[in-house]
Specification:
elongated; Fumarase C, Chain A, domain 2
């Protein structure tokens, strides 16, 4: 026979076994046990300070909660589905350990504000861990960029070769993406850093709670201003899921680059054996499976965001049990993004860039055609006219299977008499890159300045 619930005073019958199964959340919200106990310790300390319960009882509760935490972490405590969730499991363990005093812990609070508190605390910790992994990846990109300031490679638009750039410039583009992710997470944490305990079920409480004291004990920046919003708000979870979806999208884009570059057709990178797998049937295969898995997990993270948005979209104020559905996508997304960031950084640290192949690829596809047009502009030809001349030169090159730099000067002069011997230097790959000195461009000095700024940022966060 199922034992009586802590909330079962008004009930005569037992909860149906299948209903109990879907109602229970301990199978996943057990992960909140540290936050739940920390919040309960702060709540008990405040109850004693305010004289709401005897100080002796408050002290006994705090000691009992610390003992429960020790039992959980040493494997001595057992959670049960009968107790539904982490909150009631902890309270049941506390009462079993210290007796009647433990029954006073829940004075002045509800599971509604309790779960909001625990989730916010857990999320703040998760963001701290994720930003550490982000900083690791950003640092790896800076190191690789610094080593490849002169490594010329092609850049692309529409998946077609566009203009020559450097590997450093390319890598620092991804640094910017992950920098924005870092800042998004930091901003998201500000919204999570608001203490809801004291909101009760939805209408606060008649007890003289000191919410600011609890916030101080738990390290929150501020307290919530409206009790109904406090227990029904999951915006901070949704914001985290959105930030994670954008970050995972950036990882997916970068993974796609690595996957393409590692193919025989591109051959611009060689992946370490430690981050590749083989085929069960084709002996020659070396697959970029780790990059593919990171790319694939973007769908999982997106699904978590859309799932919770859909869950929340029709909920009236205040708390509804639907909100129990926030935990699994939150936990899953945090684990997924932390894992992907860490393994991706390790993969990059062990990658080999085929620099000669990159430079050779940049020399094909007429990536210096824009510079040919710019050469004519600097000789006095209007850009649109110069663009047409350069296009005609490219067409001639294609038909004759020549690079632009291989065309004889007398032939170039047939397209424009403004061409002279200095054109060959003007359209060399090195010149194409180094002349783009505008800040943000691929010239060595510009990228070096970007790296310096990036290092300063990494040193400050």
């Amino acid at each position: 026979m199922e034992k009586k619930k802590l909330w079962g005073g008004r009930f005569e019958g037992q909860l149906d076994a299948d209903a109990a199964g879907i109602n229970s959340s301990i199978s996943f919200d057990y992960q909140l046990y540290r936050q739940d106990i920390a919040g309960s310790i702060a709540h008990a300390a405040m109850l004693g300070k305010q004289g709401i319960i005897d100080q002796a009882d408050a002290d006994q509760i705090v000691g009992g909660l610390k003992a429960v935490l020790s039992d959980i972490e040493s494997g001595k405590a057992e959670f049960t589905a009968d107790n539904e969730d982490i909150h009631m499991n902890v309270e049941t363990l506390l009462i079993a350990k210290i007796g009647e005093a433990g029954k006073k812990l829940h004075t002045g609070r509800s599971r509604n504000d309790q779960v909001a508190l625990d989730t916010r605390m857990w999320l703040k910790d998760a963001i701290d861990e994720i930003t550490i992994n982000l900083k690791e990846l950003m640092g790896t990109l800076v190191e690789l960029a610094e080593d490849n300031l002169s490594t010329i490679m092609p850049s692309y638009t529409h998946m077609q070769k566009a203009q020559p750039t450097t590997l450093a410039h390319y890598l620092m583009a991804y640094f910017e993406m992950f920098k924005r992710d870092y800042l998004r997470y930091a901003d998201c944490k500000k919204r999570a850093d608001v203490m809801p305990l004291g909101s009760g079920a939805l209408a606060a409480t008649t007890y003289d709670l000191d919410r600011e004291y609890v916030a101080e004990l738990l390290g929150f920046a501020e307290i919530t201003d409206n009790s109904m919003d406090a227990v029904s708000d999951r915006d901070y979870v949704l914001e985290f899921l959105f930030a994670s979806s954008v970050c995972q999208m950036h990882l997916s884009r970068f993974s796609e680059e690595i996957i393409l570059w590692s193919t025989g057709e591109f051959n611009m990178v060689k992946l370490s054996d430690a981050f590749s797998t083989g085929s069960s049937i084709m002996p020659q295969k070396k697959n970029a499976d780790i990059a593919e898995l990171v790319r694939g997990k973007s769908g999982r993270v997106y699904g978590n965001l859309v799932g919770l948005l859909t869950t929340m979209k029709g909920l009236p104020l205040a708390y509804n049990k639907d909100m129990q559905e926030d935990k699994e996508p939150l936990f899953d997304t945090a684990y997924t993004i932390k894992t992907c960031l860490h393994v991706f950084a390790k993969m990059l640290k062990n990658i080999t860039f085929n620099k000669d192949v990159m430079a050779d690829a940049a020399g094909k596809g007429f990536t210096n055609a824009t510079d040919l047009a710019d050469y004519l502009v600097k000789k006095g030809l209007p850009f649109r006219s110069a663009h047409e001349v350069a296009g005609n030169v490219v067409l001639y090159s294609e038909k004759n299977k020549l690079a632009i730099s291989d065309i004889e000067l007398y032939t170039l002069k047939e397209f424009s008499d403004l061409f002279s011997e200095d054109v060959y230097d003007a359209i060399s790959l090195e010149t194409c890159v180094e002349k783009r000195k505008v800040y943000g461009g691929p010239a060595k000095a510009s990228v070096a300045a970007h790296i310096k700024k990036a290092k300063a940022l990494l040193g400050s966060i």
